[in-house]
């Protein structure tokens, strides 16, 4: 059974989806006023892996991750550069896709809504909150009344309202009933973009957008809400309050939060100036190495980021790739009758499959799952030292290589770079043989065409005839 550490309950819980065989998931995305840093990349990579694992287990996943494209920082950036808010949003959303494509995020089937495209939905929820007595208008602003939700507020972050009032640094405003009340709608200032509303010209507060978009695409109650630890309070706490009061339902049933990335033991943040842009890191290390680095630690633990850590991740990934390459090369030779069956490798393969699933089922323990892969790689390398391997042994090697590829590429999303020598035959020579075969097919010399195909297959090279060209693979 798959278990998730639910921040809301503070413990591991068995995952039970609302609909059997389906998972609904909302993850807070970036505010697009700058290029994303390595800290932004961690939740993007981790929750992409969560989605992939659910699909590996046979679930149908509906995955929503938003773009915050209206915000104080964005407005400031647009004014500094003398462009529109839309220009800033487009520039950095395009940059986001450019950067994250290199760490192999699975965009197919993703829902990526923008805040500015859902102003109407936000206004509708705010109106409902006012009508129900959970919010109030004050001089063109609208605030959520914390004391109207006093009983449950703080449940996610484990804080009481009294503790928050005495210990939190919260802006005091004369137009708010309570310093903890948070903005749902902000009155427009001179030179700022705005939308018309029942309370005058203005724009939404930060928190309301996620409530509106999750409700639109997933409903009032859905399975999983995710994001970084820094979002637990106030963002996710406020989402729960306004969503439960404004849309009904239970909102998110499971809350998953990834840990921080540290630089020299200190939390990475833009305010401290100790952050690295993802695109800067990608200039030095391939995206597959960055992704492997992120997944080599448990998602709830902090990660120490440094060039040395990435170099170690690169070396580890190359160990896996080299084993896969050796396995594929072995498969281009012929099995030996009476050779070894590699039963030890078969035992470790079956064990690795079980260990990988058990690790991932225990709160998406990617580090443990990768450990199971390394155990299999070690045994594969040992098996490949055998000079005489039977047909049954070849089948075990093929199953092992295929399994490693599936786990690494399809589940963990880490693309493998594997270069294989096909005996003494070069790629050019294979292409030349296929060219001769195409000429034979054009001349309806089917006997020669089949002979080339069969001979290549004996060498471990499969060919596939398409309408316009013939492709081959090992």
From TrEMBL:
<keyword id="KW-0030">Aminoacyl-tRNA synthetase</keyword>
<keyword id="KW-0648">Protein biosynthesis</keyword>
<dbReference type="InterPro" id="IPR056411">
    <property type="entry name" value="CysS_C"/>
</dbReference>
<dbReference type="Pfam" id="PF23493">
    <property type="entry name" value="CysS_C"/>
</dbReference>
<keyword id="KW-0862">Zinc</keyword>
<feature type="binding site">
    <location>
        <position position="28"/>
    </location>
    <ligand>
        <name>Zn(2+)</name>
    </ligand>
</feature>
<feature type="binding site">
    <location>
        <position position="270"/>
    </location>
    <ligand>
        <name>ATP</name>
    </ligand>
</feature>
<dbReference type="InterPro" id="IPR014729">
    <property type="entry name" value="Rossmann-like_a/b/a_fold"/>
</dbReference>
<feature type="short sequence motif" description="'KMSKS' region">
    <location>
        <begin position="267"/>
        <end position="271"/>
    </location>
</feature>
<keyword id="KW-0436">Ligase</keyword>
<keyword id="KW-0479">Metal-binding</keyword>
<dbReference type="Pfam" id="PF09190">
    <property type="entry name" value="DALR_2"/>
</dbReference>
<feature type="binding site">
    <location>
        <position position="235"/>
    </location>
    <ligand>
        <name>Zn(2+)</name>
    </ligand>
</feature>
<feature type="domain" description="Cysteinyl-tRNA synthetase class Ia DALR">
    <location>
        <begin position="355"/>
        <end position="422"/>
    </location>
</feature>
<dbReference type="InterPro" id="IPR009080">
    <property type="entry name" value="tRNAsynth_Ia_anticodon-bd"/>
</dbReference>
<dbReference type="Pfam" id="PF01406">
    <property type="entry name" value="tRNA-synt_1e"/>
</dbReference>
<feature type="short sequence motif" description="'HIGH' region">
    <location>
        <begin position="30"/>
        <end position="40"/>
    </location>
</feature>
<protein>
    <recommendedName>
        <fullName>Cysteine--tRNA ligase</fullName>
        <ecNumber>6.1.1.16</ecNumber>
    </recommendedName>
</protein>
<dbReference type="GO" id="GO:0004817">
    <property type="term" value="F:cysteine-tRNA ligase activity"/>
</dbReference>
<keyword id="KW-0067">ATP-binding</keyword>
<comment type="subunit">
    <text>Monomer.</text>
</comment>
<keyword id="KW-0963">Cytoplasm</keyword>
<feature type="binding site">
    <location>
        <position position="239"/>
    </location>
    <ligand>
        <name>Zn(2+)</name>
    </ligand>
</feature>
<keyword id="KW-0547">Nucleotide-binding</keyword>
<comment type="similarity">
    <text>Belongs to the class-I aminoacyl-tRNA synthetase family.</text>
</comment>
<dbReference type="InterPro" id="IPR015803">
    <property type="entry name" value="Cys-tRNA-ligase"/>
</dbReference>
<feature type="binding site">
    <location>
        <position position="210"/>
    </location>
    <ligand>
        <name>Zn(2+)</name>
    </ligand>
</feature>
<dbReference type="InterPro" id="IPR015273">
    <property type="entry name" value="Cys-tRNA-synt_Ia_DALR"/>
</dbReference>
<dbReference type="InterPro" id="IPR024909">
    <property type="entry name" value="Cys-tRNA/MSH_ligase"/>
</dbReference>
<dbReference type="InterPro" id="IPR032678">
    <property type="entry name" value="tRNA-synt_1_cat_dom"/>
</dbReference>
């Amino acid at each position: 059974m798959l278990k998730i550490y639910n921040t809301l309950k503070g413990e591991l819980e068995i995952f039970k989806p609302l609909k059997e065989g389906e998972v609904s998931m909302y993850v807070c995305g970036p505010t697009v006023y700058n290029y994303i840093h390595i800290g932004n990349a961690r939740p993007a990579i981790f929750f992409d892996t969560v989605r992939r694992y659910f699909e590996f287990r046979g679930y149908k996943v509906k995955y929503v991750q938003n773009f915050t494209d209206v915000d104080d920082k964005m407005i400031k950036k647009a004014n500094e550069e003398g462009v529109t808010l839309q220009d800033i949003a487009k520039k950095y959303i395009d940059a986001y896709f450019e950067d994250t494509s290199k760490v192999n995020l699975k965009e197919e089937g993703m829902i990526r809504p923008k805040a500015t495209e859902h102003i109407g939905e936000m206004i509708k929820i705010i109106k409902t909150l006012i009508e129900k007595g959970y919010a109030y208008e004050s001089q063109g602003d609208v605030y959520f009344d914390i004391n109207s939700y006093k009983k449950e507020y703080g449940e996610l972050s484990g804080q009481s309202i009294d503790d928050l009032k005495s210990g939190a640094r919260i802006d005091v405003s004369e137009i708010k009933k309570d310093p903890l009340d948070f903005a749902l709608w902000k009155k427009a200032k001179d030179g700022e973009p705005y939308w018309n509303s029942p309370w005058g010209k203005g724009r939404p507060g930060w928190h309301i957008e996620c409530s509106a978009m999750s409700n639109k695409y997933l409903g009032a109650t859905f399975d999983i809400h995710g994001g970084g630890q820094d979002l637990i309070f106030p963002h996710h706490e406020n989402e729960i309050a306004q969503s439960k009061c404004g849309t009904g339902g239970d909102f998110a049933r499971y809350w998953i939060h990834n840990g921080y990335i540290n630089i020299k033991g200190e939390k990475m943040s833009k305010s401290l100036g100790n952050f690295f842009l993802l695109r800067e890191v990608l200039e030095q290390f391939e995206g597959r190495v960055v992704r492997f680095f992120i997944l080599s630690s448990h998602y709830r633990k902090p990660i120490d980021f440094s060039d040395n850590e990435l170099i170690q991740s690169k070396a580890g990934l190359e160990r896996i790739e080299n084993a896969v390459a050796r396995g594929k090369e072995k498969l281009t030779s012929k099995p030996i009758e009476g050779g070894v069956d590699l039963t030890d490798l078969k035992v470790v393969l079956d064990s690795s499959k079980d260990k990988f699933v058990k690790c991932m089922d225990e709160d998406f323990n990617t580090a443990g799952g990768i450990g199971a892969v390394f155990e299999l790689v070690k045994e594969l390398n040992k098996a490949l030292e055998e000079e005489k391997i039977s047909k049954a042994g070849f089948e075990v090697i093929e199953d092992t290589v295929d399994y490693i590829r599936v786990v690494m590429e399809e589940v963990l999303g880490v693309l493998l770079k594997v270069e294989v020598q096909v005996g003494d035959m070069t790629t050019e020579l294979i292409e030349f043989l296929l060219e001769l075969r195409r000429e034979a097919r054009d001349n309806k010399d089917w006997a020669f065409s089949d002979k080339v195909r069969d001979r290549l297959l004996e060498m471990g090279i499969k060919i596939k005839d398409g309408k316009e060209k013939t492709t081959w693979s090992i």
